[in-house]
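Private note to self, pasted from the team thread so I don't lose it. Backbone tokens:
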């Protein structure tokens, strides 16, 4: 091989190595596509007028607008449409349908004849005897359940149950009740005739009374922006609204309940209808969501309500711990419960989600009207012996707010002034300095309170004769006078603080705080300032002399009397 040929060969090897390195880097860094993460982003105006099949997510971002016009969209299992804030989705004579629809039904849990869930077996026209095999949904059992046929109660168990009927039975209604108030599901029934024929009917295709849809919804629509639907059908999907949704003449088949979160709103107009909702209501809202249900709109009917409003995690806030409250009228059963506060909060119904409004299928509306009553709200400022009574005020309405603050019927005490009595700012260490304290109660309940004082310069407890106390009614100011003695010579300031109840979550909830006097001057005692010792001693001496003279005179008098008595006795002898 010539030198030229060798060099060319080496250059080809080097180029091949470089190409392999570049290819390896690209293979390591290139993104991979996956059907699980497939997403279509719509950022401007897009219209679908032909049939579509959606796999993965369709995301309509702010400024984007998807219109589905006069066509059907097949939503594959697990797919969805997300309408972000500022985005829009419009359905116009369109159908948005799940590839896999929920096809089972479930009982509502009532045992009485009027409200019992039941379905009809289409036996009319069947020749000869026939059997009905009833299958539960996957993962469900008939354990503890019962079927009710022509006045007879039949215990059922396992994942299926077979009923036998004689020739000429015709249509049969089968009522279902579960263990306690549990649901009984029907995935399908299979009719087997005496002649050997067989047919299966899905639960959702059965004529039923007081039963709801059951199963998994196949797709989702999440609305943060806006959705408008006219003369359309949405079937087998879950709709969540945190923005705005308006529907006119739209059918919602196995879609309910539509979930309204936060401040989400729904407007149902025209001949819109719900069918086969998967819970006992077609729309579920919160405390702040907006629901408009037009006069021509129809719901799933029966025991499935038009809408429910629910709240959860609700608390009542007070200023102290261990306050006992009684709440009456909770939930549709309008029950009563007693709760108490910890860290200043008491949980309503243990924080559980509860229904606070129901729009019944017949158009009637029930709204919770619960009230809060104080059972025990006692602190160091209103002990039972004080006669003040509970803090917390009168009964209050429990609103739908996440947190209700119960702040009425409590005191709020603050200093107005703390001063040395006029002309008395200089005293000797042997004297008492007069102090005037003025406190005011700006709250709405009385308080029996105490305060203590320190020498501000040293932090040492001041000698004021113990804790000073006062009872202050709501809106009242009181003056407390006391004396201050100090053993240290020099200038000093008296600093006093109100003692607040230990039950308070925030020490300043009922007021309180500190206040100081002006500067007081303490001097060594002088003779004029000391006690009048000499006059006192003189008085003591004079008193002793007078007492001595008095005793001496009494002694002399007793001696004279005794002598007279003695003389009298001698005369008689």
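Design output:
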């Amino acid at each position: 091989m010539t030198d030229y040929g060798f060099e060319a060969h080496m250059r080809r090897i080097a180029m091949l190595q470089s190409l392999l390195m570049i290819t390896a880097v690209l293979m390591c860094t290139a993104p991979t596509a996956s059907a699980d993460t497939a997403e279509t982003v719509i950022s401007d105006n897009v219209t679908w007028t032909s049939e579509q099949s959606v796999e993965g997510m369709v995301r309509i971002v702010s400024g984007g607008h998807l219109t589905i016009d006069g066509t059907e969209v097949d939503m594959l299992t697990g797919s969805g449409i997300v309408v972000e804030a500022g985005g829009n989705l419009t359905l116009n004579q369109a159908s948005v349908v799940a590839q896999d629809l929920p096809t089972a039904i479930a009982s509502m849990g009532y045992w009485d004849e009027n409200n019992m869930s039941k379905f009809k077996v289409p036996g009319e026209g069947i020749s000869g005897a026939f059997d009905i095999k009833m299958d539960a949904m996957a993962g469900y059992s008939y354990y503890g359940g019962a079927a009710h046929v022509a006045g007879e109660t039949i215990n059922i168990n396992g994942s299926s149950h077979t009923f036998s009927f004689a020739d000429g039975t015709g249509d049969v209604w089968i009522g279902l009740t579960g263990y306690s108030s549990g649901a009984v599901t029907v995935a399908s029934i299979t009719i087997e005739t005496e002649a050997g024929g067989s047919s299966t009917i899905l639960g959702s295709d059965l004529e039923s009374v007081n039963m709801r849809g059951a199963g998994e919804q196949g797709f989702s629509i999440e609305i943060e922006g806006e959705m408008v639907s006219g003369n359309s059908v949405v079937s087998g999907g879950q709709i969540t609204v945190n923005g705005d949704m308006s529907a006119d003449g739209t059918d919602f088949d196995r879609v309910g309940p539509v979930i309204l979160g936060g401040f989400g709103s729904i407007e149902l107009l025209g001949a819109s209808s719900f069918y086969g909702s998967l819970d006992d209501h077609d729309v579920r809202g919160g405390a702040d969501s907006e629901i408009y249900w037009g006069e021509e709109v129809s719901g799933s009917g029966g025991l499935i309500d038009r809408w429910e409003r629910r709240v959860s995690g609700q608390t009542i806030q007070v200023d102290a711990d261990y306050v006992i409250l009684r709440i009456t009228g909770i939930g549709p059963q309008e029950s009563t419960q007693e709760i108490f506060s910890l860290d200043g909060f008491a949980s309503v119904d243990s924080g559980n989600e509860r229904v606070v409004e129901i729009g019944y299928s017949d158009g009637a509306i029930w709204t919770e009207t619960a009230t809060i009553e104080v059972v025990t709200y006692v602190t160091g400022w209103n002990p039972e012996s004080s006669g003040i009574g509970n803090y917390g005020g009168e009964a209050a309405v429990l609103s739908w707010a996440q947190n209700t603050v119960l702040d009425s019927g409590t005191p709020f005490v603050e200093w107005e002034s703390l001063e040395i009595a006029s002309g008395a700012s200089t005293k000797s260490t042997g004297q008492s300095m007069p102090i005037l304290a003025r406190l005011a109660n700006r709250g709405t309940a009385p308080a029996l309170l105490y305060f203590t004082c320190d020498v501000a310069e040293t932090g040492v407890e001041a000698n004021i004769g113990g804790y000073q106390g006062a009872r202050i009614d709501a809106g009242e100011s009181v003056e407390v006078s006391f004396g201050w003695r100090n053993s240290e010579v020099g200038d000093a300031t008296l600093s006093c603080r109100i003692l607040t109840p230990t039950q308070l979550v925030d020490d300043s909830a009922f007021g309180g705080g500190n206040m100081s006097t002006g500067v007081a001057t303490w001097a060594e005692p002088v003779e004029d300032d000391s006690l009048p010792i000499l006059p006192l001693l003189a008085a003591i001496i004079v008193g002793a002399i007078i007492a001595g003279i008095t005793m001496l005179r009494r002694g002399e008098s007793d001696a004279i009397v005794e002598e007279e008595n003695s003389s009298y006795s001698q005369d008689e002898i």
